[in-house]
Amino acid sequence: MRSWVLAGSRGVHVSPPREFRLTVNGEPRVISAAAERSLLSVVRGELGLTGAKYGCGEGECGSCTLLLAGHPVRSCQVKLGEVGTREVTTVEGLAREGCLTVVQRAFLEAGAFQCGFCTPGFIVGVTALLRENPSPTPTEVREALDGHLCRCGGYLAILSAVDLAAKRLAESGGSA
After folding, report:
1. Where are the alpha helices (H) located in 18-154, listed in sequence order?
2. Burial class of residue 39, CB neighbours in 10 A (0-12, 13-18, 19+)
3. Which domains are present in the chain?
4. CB atoms within 10 A of CB 109
5. Whole-model pTM?
6. Is the CB of residue 40 less than 8 Å from the CB of residue 76?
7. For 31-42, what is each residue's pLDDT tens digit?
């Protein structure tokens, strides 16, 4: 098989494009791309789902967080060829039938965003946390969100949003 060199990639060899069948936000999708492409670049570029952001490109800032089979991942570090049959959920796929989730509403009500760049990654991360642990302690929240960076320093509002979402979930008996 012939390998390709990406322009500007410092000689990184990649395989030729091939067809991948993905389920993204509950919808089957067919993507033609190299297996070495990041999941983030495919979701943003080919699918036009721009909620997840390219921040650091090293998996350190959390701006690109998506759910892969329900687990939060830094999509800038996940290669398309590694996804397999696992479902991908982006921040756009959290809301159902035009209704925001409890977590999304809590972020709005708590004003847990300033510039908004980090917000989708935080919302996806908090959603995963509250699905696994609907009543996290403050320490568990901080551990789950370790590696999510807010360049504006809006952490107190973000923590308030997590607390509000957890309380709402407890009241309703619902799921994040």
Report:
1. 39-45, 80-83, 102-110, 119-132, 138-144
2. buried
3. 4-93 (3.10.20.30), 102-172 (1.10.150.120)
4. 13
5. 0.90
6. yes
7. 999 999 999 999
Partnered with residue 31 across adjacent β-strands are: 20
Q: For the chain, what percent of residues have pLDDT higher than 90?
A: 85
Q: Using CA atoms, how far apart are residues 90 and 167, in angstroms rounded to an integer?
A: 24
What does the alpha-carbon distance between residue 7 and residue 137 come to, in Å, rounded to a whole number? 47
> Which residues of the chain register pLDDT less than 50?
1-5, 7
SS3 30: strand
Retrieve residue 62's tokens: 């959390």
Give the Cα separation of 56 and 110 in Å (integer).
Answer: 26
